[in-house]
Specification:
Elements: H1 18-32, H2 35-41, E1 53-54, E2 89-93, H3 94-99, E3 116-118, E4 128-131, E5 134-135, E6 142-146, E7 149-150, E8 173-180, E9 194-200, E10 203-204, E11 208-214, E12 218-229, E13 232-243, E14 254-267, E15 270-284, E16 289-290, H4 291-295, E17 310-326, E18 329-346, E19 361-380, E20 383-405, E21 408-432, E22 437-454, E23 461-479, E24 482-494, H5 497-501, E25 518-531, E26 537-548, E27 552-555, E28 560-563, E29 567-578, E30 584-597, E31 613-622, E32 627-636, E33 652-662, E34 666-673, E35 681-689, E36 699-706, E37 711-719
């Protein structure tokens, strides 16, 4: 983010294509019409392993993504000694997700150690993420997917790599695997800091319906169940949520609707699945506010300066895949189609650019995404080979930045249509020298093509680029329950397609420099992983470094390009996970990062928005009489807001609690969110804005979004 201007002006939803919506509705009604009959006529499915949701589809190991054996994840984190290729990877089960109190759906990514999920706007907008010294904005440099479908949106109206998780229903997630660093050949774009993949469960142990009520008109109803249908299993789920928020001058008026249907079946010696997901949401927003407006009494810390901002978004997807034995090994393939829309209204500078009509703007994003991925694995003696490819086409009907007043359009900054296609191919080998020593090497080639059609003809055009990435790791076990790792890899992220063809700044009319389509990164890591004899205690430790090339960035909030600088980040992170018995578990995770620009500039060398210290810890207790309790605490330290570090954020600490009681069919749970009633800031920025009566040019000031105040949420769950 630039020093002088808040960079995150970004995106907005459109109405989904009627034909796609009609298809989704028809499929939903068709499948749901068979559920009651199926429940009455089908025999009960085989009893799954423990855990609310079970992912029985062949899984890819988070360690090397080459193990396609059937895995049922039931623990908190898998033991990966002898499997992983770095210390910075792991897995989270549905049982862990279910016990963790969540303020927002985006908080699911905080299961990745060291990752911080914040918010600076309304509940329907994607969270802002921080990891390994990156201000990831809404997802740049951290790749997120679900069952092979990418979540990151490239060439997005609001921000490159935009990662909105609001379409997920937490009860349907069978597992989450994460891998930090650039060391994995099967992951391409947006993965310099790491990646995460959610897996939807094939079935649940038992159907459940839940009702949650809480402060600020929070209401949530969710249903999830599975049943035998023909030769396979049908999982179905729905969610409806409302929320007004704690703000003094607006009601967020969230209206979130989610639905999911998934059919899975054993066929051809393997496992096939087809999944339909539907999401729609509307909301009003309380954006970040300037400190001086609070200090002067103009507004409270829960107030707003523009009460007409907010958004609408929708996401409809159809995906499918198959994994099983083929071609002398194991074959896995996934394909998907996504219909997505966003309309987002924001105002971060108020009267700085337009003292008459104000600085509110609208971002529009309307697209269809098609893609696939496949992999073929062969085990030959001591070698495991994996050949794979993935492709994606973003057919963007409209990506626009508009000037608005009270959500009414008064001007156009940019209005474009884009076609962006990519193809990636990789080859990886894992070789086991002996019982103690393993190696992993991989190479990946990615090719991108951009086609931009802009209302300003001079900014239209075509561009293409390719990049080759190299990966290598060694894993050595000096003892049975200790493994050491050395890893190196190169990676990249793509830039906004509009920046690859731009020639004229749409606001100033001045010449604009085109961005590099693909920006390379280089990372290395030394790590260790250990476990006790009975696996009651597990631990990880990693020393890492990551360098990014010099680049230009396309700023979706301004419709132009902006210079950035080469940078280097280094850090240490570790985690301890303790399971003394079946009743109790505890964990502590900590990371420290040093981030600096690697060139020389009198303005300073600190990377704004880079969080040095992150600590997360939690404890969980479960008793035979049905009582359970959980406490989760997260702290992130002060971080610089400008390059010379003369202005810093205050840091923050957040504590969430849960206590509950379960009987045979009924469960009651009480969540206490922000239990300490902290007034710490969810996020901070430093940039100029202008309030009524202030001089031209505005005032450089801290702009922040406060944590929602302490709130209670009571949930009732019925199992059937």
């Amino acid at each position: 983010m630039p020093v002088s201007r808040y960079h995150a002006r970004r995106a907005l939803p459109r109405c989904a294509r009627p034909r796609v919506r009609a298809l989704a509705a028809a499929l939903t009604l068709s499948l749901l019409s068979n559920i009651a009959h199926a429940q009455a006529t089908s025999e009960d499915p085989p009893a799954p392993a423990s855990g609310a949701a079970t992912a029985t589809e062949p899984q890819q190991s988070p360690a090397n993504a080459t193990n396609l054996d059937r895995v049922i994840v039931t623990g908190r984190r898998q033991n990966l000694v002898g499997e992983a290729i770095s210390a910075s990877e792991g897995s989270v089960s549905q049982a862990d997700i279910a016990e963790h109190p969540l303020l927002r759906t985006g908080d699911l990514l905080e299961f990745v150690p060291g990752l911080v999920a914040t918010a600076h706007s309304g509940s329907g907008k994607a969270n802002q993420y921080f990891l390994r010294g990156f201000n990831l904005d809404h997802g740049t440099d951290f790749s997120t997917s679900i069952d092979g479908m990418p979540v990151n949106m490239r060439t997005h109206g609001h921000g490159q790599g935009y990662t909105d998780l609001n379409f997920l229903i937490p009860e349907t997630i069978g597992s989450l695997t994460y891998r930090k660093g650039t060391y994995y050949a099967d992951v391409g774009d947006f993965s310099s800091a790491g990646s995460a993949e959610f897996r939807v469960a094939d079935r649940v142990d038992a159907g459940q319906a839940s009702l949650t009520v809480g402060a600020d008109q929070y209401r949530r109803v969710a249903v999830v169940d599975s049943t035998r249908l023909g030769a396979g299993e049908l999982l179905y789920a729905g969610e409806y949520q409302t929320y007004d928020g704690p703000w003094t001058d607006i009601d967020e008026d969230v209206r979130k609707k989610n639905a999911l249907l998934r059919y899975s079946v054993d066929i051809g010696g393997g496992r096939a699945h087809a999944t339909l997901m539907a999401y729609d949401n509307t909301w009003n927003a309380a954006d970040q506010i300037p400190q001086r407006a609070v200090d002067s009494g103009r507004i409270s810390e829960f107030g707003s300066l523009d009460t007409t901002v907010g958004g609408k978004s929708s996401r409809y997807s159809l995906s499918g895949g198959w994994s099983g034995p083929a071609f002398g090994g194991t074959f896995s393939a996934d394909a998907y189609a996504i219909d997505y829309a966003l309309n987002l209204w924001s105002n971060f500078t108020y009267l700085l650019d337009d003292p008459v009509d104000g600085d509110q703007f609208q971002q529009v994003d309307d697209r269809t995404i098609y893609g696939f991925r496949f992999s073929q694995q062969w085990d030959r003696g001591r070698s495991r080979w994996r050949l794979g490819a993935d492709g994606r086409l973003d057919d963007i009907d409209r990506v626009a930045l508009l000037r608005t007043r009270a959500r009414e359009q008064i001007g156009t900054v940019r209005d474009d249509s884009v076609r962006e296609g990519s193809l990636g191919i990789y080859l990886a080998n894992e070789f086991r020298f002996n019982e103690r020593l393993r190696s992993y090497v991989g190479v990946r080639r990615d090719q991108y093509d951009f086609d931009v059609d802009s209302t300003l003809a001079t900014n239209s055009g075509n561009a293409s680029a390719g990049i080759t990435s190299y990966k290598a790791s060694l894993a050595y076990q000096p003892a049975d329950r200790l493994e050491l790792y050395a890893s190196y890899g190169t990676g990249f992220h793509s830039n906004d397609a509009r920046g690859t063809t731009i020639t004229v700044d749409p606001v100033s009319g001045e010449p604009a420099e085109r961005v590099d389509p693909l920006v390379g990164s280089r990372g290395a890591e030394l790590g260790a992983r250990m476990q006790s004899r009975e696996r009651r205690l597990q631990g990880t430790l990693a020393l890492w470094t990551l360098a990014l090339d010099s680049e230009l960035l396309f700023v979706g909030d301004a419709g132009n390009t902006e210079a950035s600088r080469p940078s280097r980040r280094s850090g240490i992170e570790g985690g301890l996970y303790w399971y003394p018995n079946e009743r109790y578990s505890a964990h502590v995770e900590a990371s420290y990062t040093r981030s600096r620009f690697s060139d020389s500039d009198p303005g300073g060398s600190d990377v704004p928005g880079s969080i040095p210290l992150v600590i997360g810890t939690g404890v969980t207790a479960r008793y035979d009489n049905g009582w359970q309790a959980s406490a989760q605490l997260q702290h992130f330290g002060r971080y610089p807001l400008i390059e010379d570090a003369s202005v810093e954020s205050q840091g923050s600490t957040l504590l969430n609690l849960r206590v509950g009681r379960e009987w045979a069919k009924v469960g009651v749970y009480l969540d206490v969110l922000n239990a300490l009633d902290s007034r710490d800031h969810d996020i901070d920025y430093f940039y100029p804005s202008r309030l009524p009566g202030e001089a031209e040019g505005g005032v450089d000031d801290l702009h922040f979004h406060v944590f929602p105040s302490r709130s209670l949420r009571l949930s009732l769950r019925y199992t059937f």
